[in-house]
User: Which sequence fits this backbone?
């Protein structure tokens, strides 16, 4: 029995020295001392080997030890739940968290994504190119004559180190690069920032964003152009919006046209936005000029194509009734946080 009493003393010391720092070590302690195959169970099993006259005394010692081991367990259990542990934490995880302010998309990005995704659904692929361009891709290939006002320093930002370099004035240069690759048919949409040497005002800025499109294949007709752009308008502005095409002129398309939609504000009755005409212009378009096709190495007898271009700021201003172009580049959070997109 003395041996057993010595053992119990050692277990007691072990319990007193035990470090329990979480649910895992608490459970380890329980299994070791209090479990069904644990030390306590084992010691109670030894009772039968104790002589009858010592049974009472040993029983007393064993019960004290049991109470000690159980009390320690309860004490640790309490501590573990106060300090917090993944399994037994007293933290209330259902409490609402702190608000993290989430940013919003810029209205230009929202509208650009919308435009691009409509054309993607029609099978157009996105094409991108450099913002610093050479004269050939930005002007010459596009049939812009030497004396065209767009080439003037007043209208275009040239790079001072090299008079052949400039900030692209439209994303048409991306289409030229795509045509040069010679892989036909071509069906691309080119979103991107463009630069023009304009005095900044409510209606003009020295940079803005465009989406241009190009479709070249055999037998592409003006009817394809009209139907494609009509589909775009219906998807973008709704089924009740009307369109009309007016003849126009661009050096890179022939014939050329501008497309109007019935005014979104007054529905065509006449208001300030449509200057009482009932119509607002949203894009320019036309059949790619045969000279442009030839300049880019495409046989104009075999292939025809249509192209169009629109300013995203203009569409965004119409959609959200924004009166001043400068708001888009001022980064005023009070302005920006008003816009949310479904995507
Ligand atoms: C190639 C051939 C033809 C793109 C076109 C327009 C008409 C047009 C303006 C809209 C408002 C520019 O942002 S804006 O100021 N664009 O009216 N753009 S046809 O024609 C091309 C493009 C590439 C190779």
Assistant:
């Amino acid at each position: 029995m003395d041996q057993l009493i010595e053992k119990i003393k050692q277990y007691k010391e072990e319990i007193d020295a035990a470090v329990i720092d979480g649910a895992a070590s608490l459970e380890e302690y329980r299994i070791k001392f209090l479990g069904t195959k644990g030390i306590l169970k084992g010691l109670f099993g030894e009772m039968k080997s104790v002589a009858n006259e010592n049974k009472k005394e040993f029983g007393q010692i064993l019960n004290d030890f049991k109470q000690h081991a159980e009390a320690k367990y309860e004490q640790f259990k309490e501590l573990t739940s106060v300090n917090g542990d993944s399994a037994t934490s007293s933290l209330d995880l259902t409490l609402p968290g702190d608000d993290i302010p989430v940013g919003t998309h810029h209205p230009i990005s929202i509208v650009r994504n919308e435009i691009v995704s409509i054309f993607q659904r029609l099978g157009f692929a996105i094409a991108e190119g450099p913002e610093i361009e050479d004269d050939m891709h930005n002007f010459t290939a596009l049939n812009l004559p030497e004396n065209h006002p767009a080439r003037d320093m007043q209208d275009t930002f040239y790079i001072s180190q090299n008079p052949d370099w400039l900030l692209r004035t439209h994303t048409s240069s991306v289409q030229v690069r795509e045509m040069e690759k010679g892989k036909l048919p071509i069906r691309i949409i080119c979103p991107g920032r463009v630069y023009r040497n304009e005095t900044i005002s409510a209606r003009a800025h020295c940079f803005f964003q465009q989406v241009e499109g190009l479709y070249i294949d055999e037998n592409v007709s003006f009817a394809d152009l009209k139907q494609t752009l009509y589909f775009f308008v219906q998807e973008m502005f709704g089924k009740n919006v009307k369109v009309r095409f007016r003849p126009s002129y661009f050096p890179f398309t022939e014939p050329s046209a501008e497309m109007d939609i019935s005014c979104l504000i007054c529905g065509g009755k006449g208001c300030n936005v449509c200057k009482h005409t009932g119509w607002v212009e949203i894009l320019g378009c036309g059949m790619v000029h045969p000279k442009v096709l030839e300049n880019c190495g495409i046989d104009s007898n075999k292939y025809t194509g249509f192209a169009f271009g629109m300013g995203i700021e203009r569409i965004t201003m119409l959609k959200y009734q924004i009166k001043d172009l400068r708001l888009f580049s001022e980064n005023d959070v009070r302005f920006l946080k008003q816009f949310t997109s479904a995507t």
